[in-house]
Amino acid sequence: MSSPSSPDGAPRGVALLGSTGSIGRQTIDVLAAHPDRFRVVVLAAGTDRAGLEEQTARLHPEVSALGASGEDLAELATRDDVDLVVIATGGVVSLRPVLAALRAGKVVATANKETLVAGGHLVMPEARRLAAERAATSPGDPFASPLAWLRPIDSEHSAIWQCLVGESMASVAALVLTASGGPFLDASPAELAAVTPERALRHPTWTMGAKITIDSATLANKGLEVIEAHWLYDAPYDAIEVVIHPQSVVHSAVRFVDGSLKAQLGTPDMRLPIQYAMTYPDRQPSPAAAPDLIGAGRLDFRAPDTSRFPALRIAREAGVAGPWASAALIAADDVAVERFLAGTLAFTDIPRLLEAAVTRFGTTAAPAPDVEALVALDVEVRAAFASGPIGGVA
Ligand SMILES: NC(=O)c1ccc[n+]([C@@H]2O[C@H](COP(=O)([O-])OP(=O)(O)OC[C@H]3O[C@@H](n4cnc5c(N)ncnc54)[C@H](OP(=O)(O)O)[C@@H]3O)[C@@H](O)[C@H]2O)c1
After folding, report:
1. Could you report the per-residue pLDDT of 369-393, keeping only the tens digit for each?
2. Is residue 88 within 6 Å of ligand 1 at its C-beta?
3. Could you please report the per-residue DSSP string of 254-285?
4. Which one of 69, 94, 212 would you pick to mutate in the ligand 1 pocket, going by the greatest count of ligand atoms within 8 A of its CB?
5. Structure pTM?
6. Assuming Cys at both sites, which of 23, 75, 252, 352 could form a disulfide with 159, CB separation 3.0 to 4.6 Å?
7. Closest to 217 in 3D by CA, of 231, 241, 198, 230
8. Which ligand 1 atom is nearest residue 48's CA?
9. Of all atoms in ligand 1, which is nearest to the CA of residue 51?
10. Would strands 12-17 and 84-87 be described as parallel, antiparallel, or unpaired?
């Protein structure tokens, strides 16, 4: 069986949550390029009414929704005519639709970080259950893998996924996440302290939404990706490495026990990982150009510097500490980036705020949070750090 069509061979029904954002618009490019394979059933956005109306007029979904709640999005994601749910929102609003969709046996492709950073302990068991059910009836089926049900869109996780196809996790020695290092790779501590939002929003290789662009500059994004990789691939933290690779051509790699290093290379174009997540296990022509190795000339790699970019260390430690800490981290990061963009927090105070939030909210002995607790924690962290000085760290 292949994934792109429904069992009757009709185009797969797609619910796209976050259609007006950076990932959402690129997903629409992919959908528009494959009208024979996909039918847009649901478009949902937050506040951009004009953008959603334009998309609705162009794609004729059954439903378009603006500013929907997590509960409403869950209802839309589990409609009978939806086969594939693409999560292109930021924030915890998507946790309910992801869980509901997986519980209803839908395929979920997610760019959203909260899905795994805050909710990995909730969503992965659902994906594993679906994979185990398929493995019991047809072992060797591409859908006998949890990654067929919860598909990563992030280019790094897509790269690792592509390297793992046909491999056994038992033969994996380490996952190697690459990071561009952002625009301040070689900046001194004094230069980092004086970074402005305008400078930080100029990413050297990728064009993305504002939040993830700032996260790339602090390396918080790579830290969140370490946590995502832990959940997606069931990999221990000490087997997840980060390598700085300024050209962003090698999207990530997997090292195997025999010493082989398998990497996926591509141009910095999110339409490729978005499309792979939608057409898996098939590959289809895409608008993304293949990398030009001779034109690139050289590819550089170096170790990350966690003394200048402590957010990477703080995120990894939060991942090791568990779901409360990583959920506090990602909520705090949203607040920190908002404050930095508003000019009320220095660039170098972003990691200080993250560490304060993880220390304050991440050290509870309470059982792992359910969705309600995650949503409540998100509100609490935001309220605690929305303004004023950052408490909790020297
Ligand atoms: N951009 C990238 O290249 C990239 C790469 C890898 C991973 N990611 C991750 O993907 C996620 C999305 O990133 P992005 O850069 O595309 O963000 P973005 O440009 O800020 O877009 C966010 C989208 O979510 C929508 N949204 C907000 N609240 C919603 C709600 N209640 N219901 C439905 N939609 C809602 C927004 O709608 P409005 O615009 O209408 O308010 C917008 O369409 C993030 O978690 C990010 O870290 C992004």
Report:
1. 999 999 999 999 999 999 988 864 4
2. yes
3. EEETTS-EEEEE--S-THHHHHHHHHTT----
4. 212
5. 0.96
6. 252
7. 198
8. 40
9. 40
10. parallel
